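Appendix B, record 7
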Amino acid sequence: MKEYALKYGCNPNQMPARIFMEEGELPVEVLNGRPGYINFLDAFNSWQLVSEIKKSTGQTAATSFKHVSPTSAAIGKKLTLSLKKACFVDDIEGLDDSPLACAYARARGTDRMSSFGDWIALSDECDEVTAKIIAREVSDGIIAPAYSPKALEILKGKRKGGYNIVRIDPDYVPEPIERKQVFGVTFEQGRNNFRIDRALLQNLVTEKKDLPEDKALDLIISLITLKYTQSNSVCFAADGQAIGVGAGQQSRIHCTRLAAQKADLWHLRQHEKVLSLQFAEGVGRPEMNNIIDIYLSDAPEEVTGDSVWRKYFAVRPAPFGKEEKEAYLKTVTGVSLGSDAFFPFADNIERAYRSGVRYVAEPGGSVRDDLVIEAADKFGMVMAFTGMRLFHH
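Structure tokens (predicted):
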């Protein structure tokens, strides 16, 4: 198949819309549904992300995408019981036996508010356990190299039979030159084929130079995630997954603050007070996400107040005050951080430290590199200068 007619373009009024190949066949097959323009933008970017993580680390990977940026990406490490509860997968049978399901459970569970209606990419054949997790989440579609018969049957039942399921040829290699049009003008550039792996982290510029392999892995995951995140972007990572992505901000400190806020929420969701919340009968999974988000906000009374808590909870939640949350977050350490371009000011390092960051990878090249390194040394961080910017637009 050389072309595929899309449902519509970025918006319903942008018709006609299609994807096509000038030469050769499309590397994808639509097995179910009818994906649109943004669906395929998410599909192709998300597939590149998980396939690169797989190639770089040798481990199964999954990502959850929304509007051409990942909410998270993860490898298939087993989840602790508390993390299973935080990710709403503690009832999934066979989860520990499926690295792919573990990877998606982590990716979806990181920033559930942003992942609502996500596009999914899997590095390996979608199995039944992974499909069962996807089946009960609100999602637009999925791309993977293959699907087991049972997984395909489960996924075809989503969205009243209209769920978008795409199979991609894992051996497809695009042309080295890519083009796109903006305002009738064609842009052309070489594809960003830069390889991100352990060798990229050799230039350690801080006094402290001990970079454990598990932290190097987290930095690699954060950098590959950034490669397919709308710039400017910063990514926090821990335990084999991206835990906070700050995407598309005009200033880098806003990227860092946004990513840090999301990483903090990821940690707080695993606190016993959150895990023990007892929701009222009839409260659905998407509503639970929103309720937890408000419970952890600066205005928890919106869901815990005298006149409203019974709408959301079977048992009124214990207060989780600002000081208690801050004390809990101070125990967090060992987090890794990647940036798609250099940090122009040390304030990024200072903010990252407050969210547990101790390992950093950034290109370097700022006129204030010395001040950024000085701040990293002050906080006992290990920082690598990669020499490679990862802007993506």
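Remarks on this record: The chain has a mean pLDDT of 96. The first helix runs from residue 37 to 57.
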